[in-house]
């Protein structure tokens, strides 16, 4: 998952003086690439993009409601985390961590003088039948689509944790750094009841399986060919992304006449997925945008709401149940402003 060469130290601190003091302490270390993050949203983006081996995190961030999700992401990549306090004295270079990333990060709360000094830190589910040309009986969806970007890895895990082992076939596009998606798939497959696999071109879409777009530079979509199948393509970027959520959602919109579709657009920066979700709603699919309060970055969900694509706006902990029912648990509106 990590390349050879300098390893990355992420310094996440809203206080610019503290952040720069720590970064400057490692500026001359050729074996360390020290990068800063001034907000918790930026910390998410930097973590997903750079896969830091060690994180020095301000205590202010550790007290925010978004921290548990960020902490889960640190654990997922095996980052070692130091939570530093307000006092900064004698910031010294840290010891290089072991080459092999630990399975679980160490967390040490430091609240004394010199606290910012990192030197002192301490079974698969059975496959169901393929989805036929007319869908399957029942009141739930025949197929589910999910799109996400910044903060989405943890949000996706939360949603899938609410899925049963025989869930409808689910396709996921998450904007992610090349080479990281495979590790996410392995973790999700261990953590949730359905099987989570990398999407492959031409794969039958079966109940009990979640298909994750892992190939960089290839869009994930669905096609009708003796049932529903996954399709990977090399078409141009959409909204600056490949794979793009819009491509997946647009392909699902084309089969709403024959299949019951449910889709969710989760936390993320930009507008990818908004147009595709609008097409899905026009085709009577059930569509959900994650609400602002539980989103790390409320860009993509907000854009979907503004485009008229969201049938429901829900907090993260209510999305799984709503997707499986193709129905919102209660009326909820949000302006998108």
From TrEMBL:
InterPro entries linked to this entry: CheB_C, Sig_transdc_resp-reg_Me-estase
Lineage: Bacteria, Pseudomonadati, Pseudomonadota, Alphaproteobacteria, Rhodobacterales
Active-site residues (renumbered): 149, 175, 272
UniProt feature, compositional bias: Low complexity: 111-120
One family name in Pfam for this protein: CheB_methylest
MF terms (GO), sorted A to Z: phosphorelay response regulator activity; protein-glutamate methylesterase activity
Major enzyme class: hydrolase
UniProt keyword Hydrolase, yes or no: yes
Start and end residues of each CheB-type methylesterase domain: 137-330
PANTHER family, per the entry: PROTEIN-GLUTAMATE METHYLESTERASE/PROTEIN-GLUTAMINE GLUTAMINASE (PTHR42872), PROTEIN-GLUTAMATE METHYLESTERASE_PROTEIN-GLUTAMINE GLUTAMINASE (PTHR42872:SF6)
PROSITE patterns: CHEB
Domain of life: Bacteria
Entry EC number(s): 3.1.1.61
UniProt name for this protein: protein-glutamate methylesterase
The keyword Signal belongs to this UniProt entry's keyword annotation: no
Catalytic activity: [protein]-L-glutamate 5-O-methyl ester + H2O = L-glutamyl-[protein] + methanol + H(+)
